[in-house]
């Protein structure tokens, strides 16, 4: 290229200047939320509440025992609900109209009636059946058998089973039909196919909502207070019935519930990340990552 051609060649275009998008609406909304939050905190800080009582009874023996009972009944009821849910889901998907109809009726009834009503029915079962008889084993007074723990376990667990049935059914339906056909072609029986092929793959869909159900179970277990089961709320009620520090003890109960649900929410998060490995959907970004994304201009978000 000679000097004339070089002079005639157009100059290189300057590099474009990238101007990051300013999200002023986000910052305005954040300011409004912080102001409202500050007003709420100020209202509770200036209220006639002795927060020293809240912290004092947070580790009180009766309250701690109530929190432990809440954890026990939640784990037992969720376990019972999961077993019943798997059984009902398999029955719903059966080609037998009787088993499918019974499973549908179970889900319809226990999802359609309040869990508190179900707890009260189990607790007052002796009004319908004064005695419980098992052939070859004996007869017992229903009042002696139906303790508050057993009534809470049956009420919460059977109700939870109706919700778990729909969760498990959705998980089983998410597995490709070809997996079942391939297992049958290899000579596997339907029960073995369900246990060895379908359910392991369905767990990726089943686990996340099951974790949500357990967190919800921790809070729903407070309804067992109505049938005299010594869970967290009833333990606090017994305390504030004597010292009249109602709001302070209710705050104490709220802190315990927040601690329990927070611990299991973290465990649920890591469990979901484990089962999400290899899927086409990435894990949801954490709160800190979302904050960083808003503080760093120019990042794609």
TrEMBL record:
Residues spanning the membrane: 27-47, 67-91, 103-125, 244-267
Name of the protein in question: Amino acid ABC transporter permease
The keyword Cell membrane appears for this protein: yes
Gene3D superfamilies: MetI-like (1.10.3720.10)
Keyword Transmembrane helix appears in the UniProt entry: yes
Organism: Nocardioides aquiterrae
PANTHER family (UniProt xref): L-CYSTINE TRANSPORT SYSTEM PERMEASE PROTEIN TCYL, MEMBRANE COMPONENT OF AMINO ACID ABC TRANSPORTER
Domain ABC transmembrane type-1: 67-268
Keywords: Amino-acid transport, Cell membrane, Membrane, Transmembrane, Transmembrane helix, Transport
Protein's membrane topology: Multi-pass membrane protein
Cellular location(s): Cell membrane
Superkingdom of origin organism: Bacteria
Membership in a protein family: Belongs to the binding-protein-dependent transport system permease family.
Chain segments annotated as coiled-coil in the UniProt record: none
Alphabetical list of CDD domains matching this protein: TM_PBP2
Lineage, broadest ranks: Bacteria, Bacillati, Actinomycetota, Actinomycetes, Propionibacteriales
């Amino acid at each position: 290229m000679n000097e004339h051609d070089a002079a005639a060649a157009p100059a290189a275009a300057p590099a474009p200047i990238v101007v990051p998008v300013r999200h002023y609406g986000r910052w305005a909304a954040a300011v409004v939320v912080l102001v409202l939050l500050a007003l709420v905190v100020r209202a509770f800080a200036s209220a006639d509440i002795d927060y020293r009582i809240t912290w004092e009874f947070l580790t009180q023996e009766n309250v701690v025992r109530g929190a432990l009972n809440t954890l026990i009944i939640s784990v037992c009821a969720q376990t019972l609900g999961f077993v019943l849910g798997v059984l009902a889901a398999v029955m719903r998907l059966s080609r037998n109209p009787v088993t499918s109809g019974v499973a549908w009726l179970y889900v319809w009834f226990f999802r359609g009636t309040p869990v508190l009503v179900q707890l009260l029915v189990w607790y007052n079962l002796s009004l319908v059946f004064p005695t419980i008889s098992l052939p070859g084993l004996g007869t017992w007074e229903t009042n002696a058998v139906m303790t508050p723990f057993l009534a809470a376990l049956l009420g919460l667990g059977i109700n939870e089973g109706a919700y778990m049935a729909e969760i498990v059914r959705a998980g089983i339906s998410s597995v490709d039909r070809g997996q079942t056909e391939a297992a049958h072609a290899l000579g596997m029986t339907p029960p073995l196919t369900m246990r060895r092929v379908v359910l392991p793959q369905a767990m990726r869909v089943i686990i996340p909502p099951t974790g949500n159900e357990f967190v919800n179970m921790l809070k729903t277990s407070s309804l067992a207070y109505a049938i005299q089961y010594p869970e967290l709320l009833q333990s606090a009620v017994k305390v504030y019935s004597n010292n009249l520090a109602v709001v302070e003890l209710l705050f104490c109960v709220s802190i315990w519930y927040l601690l329990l649900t927070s611990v299991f929410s973290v465990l649920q998060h890591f469990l979901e990340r484990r089962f999400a490995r290899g899927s086409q959907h990435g894990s949801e970004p954490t709160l800190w990552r979302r904050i960083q994304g808003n503080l760093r201009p120019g990042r794609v978000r």
